[in-house]
Design goal:
This protein is an alpha/beta fold. The protein is built from twelve helices and five strands. Strands 2-3-4-1-5 form a five-stranded parallel sheet. The radius of gyration is 25 Å and the shape is elongated.
Length: 260
């Protein structure tokens, strides 16, 4: 299909019709700047196209971040790696690259409450979005509720397929699922469907030895653990609660005496 332009149609209108909004808005000012600096037409066109491409990239990243549904704004630079014994900044940086996601491997983060599991998982999810990856962040309790709703409406398979669109599914706080075995079965169904097909990141306060509290029976528990750890990296955040440490710091500060 050819596009016929009216003779009076301006360049800006033409660019708008092609959905090149940045080029439409900036072409005139940039042309004057490049003409003033005696730069070539090729340089001008290259810069104009580069600005359009950067704008589209930023829009895409914004959509990925919005679709990821990150609950809070946690940044990796604010995660105190030095507090975690055996964890190095270089290893965390390697996780940002996300090569394990390309291999459909998993990342399992264990630790007591307050040790930074949620902070780290949110920060990593943000980095993966910025790296142009499709991520979904969801609490385990919310995920189970959504799976149950889908099961009751006979659309569980379709819901799981929709989750396949996400390269990595970040499931936070898997320890806090107060459901019966018949309900946590849907979570196992999801994990089994992603095995060697898509990646998951799971945070948990419970070590594997206590996962029978989640899946209720030994067979399902063993099967779930087997699928998760077969291709997985495991981080253990064995340190004092970050919130508790901060509270101790505040309480250790001497009180200022009031002037009499």
């Amino acid at each position: 299909m050819s596009l016929t332009l009216a003779p009076s149609q301006s360049l800006a209108q033409t660019l708008e019709s092609l959905s090149l909004k940045v080029m439409a808005n900036e072409h005139q000012d940039l042309a004057e700047l490049f003409e003033k600096n005696k730069k070539s037409f090729v340089d001008y066109l290259g810069e104009l196209a580069s600005r359009e491409a950067e704008h589209r990239y930023q829009l895409k990243i914004s959509r990925l971040l919005k679709n990821a549904k990150l609950p809070r704004n946690k940044l990796l630079k604010d995660f105190e790696v030095h507090r975690i014994p055996g964890l190095s900044a270089s290893y965390v940086q390697s996780l940002i690259g996300g090569e394990f996601i390309d291999r459909y491997e998993n990342l399992l983060i264990f630790g007591n409450p307050g040790t930074g599991k949620t902070h780290l998982s949110i920060a990593l999810a943000r980095e993966w979005c910025v790296a142009n990856r499709r991520v979904l962040y969801i609490s385990a309790a919310n995920l189970v509720q959504q799976l149950l709703i889908a099961k009751r409406s006979l659309s569980l398979e379709q819901y799981i397929k929709r989750l396949d669109a996400f390269e990595i599914l970040v499931i936070d706080d898997i320890s806090y699922i107060p459901f019966e075995a018949s309900e946590t079965d849907v979570l196992f169904t999801l994990l089994a469907s992603r095995y060697e097909m898509r990646s998951v990141l799971i945070t948990s306060n419970l070590p594997f030895a206590n996962w029978n509290k989640i899946f209720k029976d030994e067979i399902t528990t063993a099967a779930a653990i087997d699928r998760l750890v077969h291709h997985a990296m495991i981080l253990e955040l064995n340190t004092e609660s970050y919130r508790m440490a901060n509270a101790k710091k505040r309480n250790s500060k001497p009180l200022l005496k009031k002037d009499k």
